[in-house]
Write a structure and sequence with these properties.
Shape: globular
Oligomer: single chain
Distance between the termini: 36 Å
Number of helices: 9
Number of strands: 10
Order of helices and strands: HEEEEEHEHEHEHHHEHEH
Helix content: 25-40%
Strand content: 15-25%
Structural class: alpha/beta
Length: 274
């Protein structure tokens, strides 16, 4: 989201594609952290070839997590956010959206929904994955994408819970905030209402998640996406829902805390228990 904030500050947020800032180069791999992983090739419904990394749980898996990363770079710089999960007993599939890393195509909001479809289909067909225990976890832009998908996606009925970290509530709202926060672009904060696609707004979808359990995590020192976005989503959501505000954390930093990781692992075991 650093690139997103910078581009917004210079007034480039009039196009929804600004939400995507992909890198093609894969910088790191899970093997560098001593993690077993498998490169998984997927194909979206429209034919776009996608890349993902599958990290198996150590021991019998408690559940499987489909991880959606933020708007910049690719899975090679984001997977560290979920690298702790296999040791905690969770399989993880980390997806690169179209246009990111080794995935083909160009990113778009509609395309990302097809990409999540492809990843869900792969998990439901994969040996060793309990189809009854799949959780969707998105950070930042990934959280926004996850909320819309869990409310409207083709495989939404196969999800057992949705977790977001540092998600924004609305594409136009976050764009307006960024424009309003910089004196050169302040006069143009009305532009998002004309130029930003808001058909995939999390705020418009979050109430439709129920009865799927929803957990919203947000650092209260987040200056990229203020915690007010998760507060708004929580207010609009229906039960069952939880909001964890982390006083000392910035943008997608809450899970750097071992205590919070343990708390999340306990939550995931609870909501996926059969």
């Amino acid at each position: 989201m650093r690139a997103l904030a910078l581009l917004f500050a210079f007034g480039l947020a009039g196009c929804t594609s600004t939400f995507f800032q992909p890198h093609r180069v894969l910088v790191h791999t899970p093997a560098e952290l001593g993690l077993a992983f498998e490169e998984v090739r997927l194909r979206a419904e429209d034919g776009v070839a996608l890349n993902a990394w599958y990290l198996p749980a150590r021991g019998a898996p408690a559940a499987t997590v489909l991880y959606l990363h933020g708007n910049a770079e690719n899975i090679s710089t984001h997977f560290a956010n979920v690298a702790w999960m296999p040791a905690a007993g969770f399989n993880v599939l980390a997806l690169d959206y179209r246009g990111y890393g080794a995935s083909e195509g160009s990113p778009s909001l509609a395309g990302a929904q097809l990409d999540i479809d492809a990843a869900m289909h792969a998990l439901l067909e994969r040996p060793g994955v309990d189809r009854r225990r799949i959780v969707l976890f998105g950070q930042s832009l990934g959280g926004a994408l996850a909320i819309h998908y869990a409310a409207h996606g083709a495989y939404r009925s196969s999800l057992r819970a949705l977790v977001t970290d540092s998600a924004f509530s609305d594409y136009r709202a976050i764009t307006r905030e960024k424009l309003a926060g910089f004196f050169l672009t302040w006069p143009f904060q009305w532009l998002p209402w004309l130029t930003v696609d808001n058909d995939y707004s999390p705020a418009a979808s979050v109430a439709a998640l129920s009865p799927l359990p929803l957990l919203l995590i947000h650092g209260e020192r987040d200056v990229v996406v203020p915690a007010s976005h998760s507060r708004r989503l929580y207010a609009l959501a229906r039960e069952p829902k939880e909001l964890w505000l982390v006083p000392e954390a910035g943008h997608i930093q809450a899970l750097r805390s071992a205590e919070l990781r343990a708390r999340l692992a306990d939550y995931l075991r609870r909501v996926t228990a059969i």
